[in-house]
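Comment thread on ticket #2218

A.B. wrote:
> Attaching the input chain for the structure job we discussed in standup.
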Amino acid sequence: AGSWDDSKSRRFYVGYEGDDVVLFNVEDVVLNYYINNHGLKEGCHAEGSIVSTLFAILCWNIIFGDVENVFYNQYQYHPLDYWSPEFYKNRKTQFEERFELLREASPVKLNDLIEESWSLHTQTGCVGLNWDLFTDVKQCQRCVACITPVKLVGILEEYLTDTRLKRSGLP
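C.D. wrote:
> Ran it. Output below, let me know if you need it in another format.
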């Protein structure tokens, strides 16, 4: 049993953890529902952050690849063309090759790609990448394991069509 608290700009659900009264946002209510009623062990609410984080981890070398006039110093966390249509155009061959590799990858290969990128770049700034989203590389790998490689590539390709627009608003 619970009720809505209208005192905030966001709505919160008042629920209980043992004898304690706790405020939950709707995302937590949904996540707890699936964990408690459908046998899931973990989950997260992150809107587009999951997609942008997976994109950065799986395409790091392409994002930061050698493209003329897009990096002016070592502190940039994205190339200057990242938000433009030229971002894809300037790296089309590399993206096509990477997506074909991901499409054909076995679960072991996908885990290896994630592990390699994670270990090389952990906590390095990159646009769209939220290092705190997953508790560790294993949780990231478990997330990817829930998506077939073909669907993963489809999601990444769609994200790539407009990285600014597609980074938010996802459920």
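A.B. wrote:
> Thanks. Noting for the ticket: Helices lie at 26-37, 49-63, 86-89, 92-104, 107-121, 137-145, 149-161.
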